[in-house]
Specification:
Structural class: mainly alpha
Distance between the termini: 88 Å
Oligomer: single chain
Helix content: over 70%
Radius of gyration: 24 Å
Amino acid sequence: MEMKNILIIVLPIVTAILSSYLTYYFAIKSKKNEAITRFKEEKYSNLIIALQGFIGSTVSSETKRRFFEEQYKSWLYSSDEVVESINELVKLLIDENGDTPNPERGRKIIGTIILKMRKDLLGKTKLDYKDFRYTDVIR
């Protein structure tokens, strides 16, 4: 009988403490993941904007320089797949040695970079690299 009374008192206290800890743990984990996602969205956005320095009439050495600055920083937060796809672009530029790369290969590589960023942020997607279209703004 005495053990039953102790359990009646102790069990609710232990349950309350355990549930409080679990609630706190999952809330902190959720906030951390949310902050990481917001950070990546901002950084990926900067990379995408800087990618314009390689495309169409927006080609600019200043924008390219900004892209490479962002690309170096991306090693700290990007998924392996994003880093690998950006490295493909860098390899293409090195292989072309300053010449204009094959437009189809360039579109594929840039579309793949965007797709990998999207997958890193959203987890999965049904889109393909061909679905990303860059529209060149004409004055």
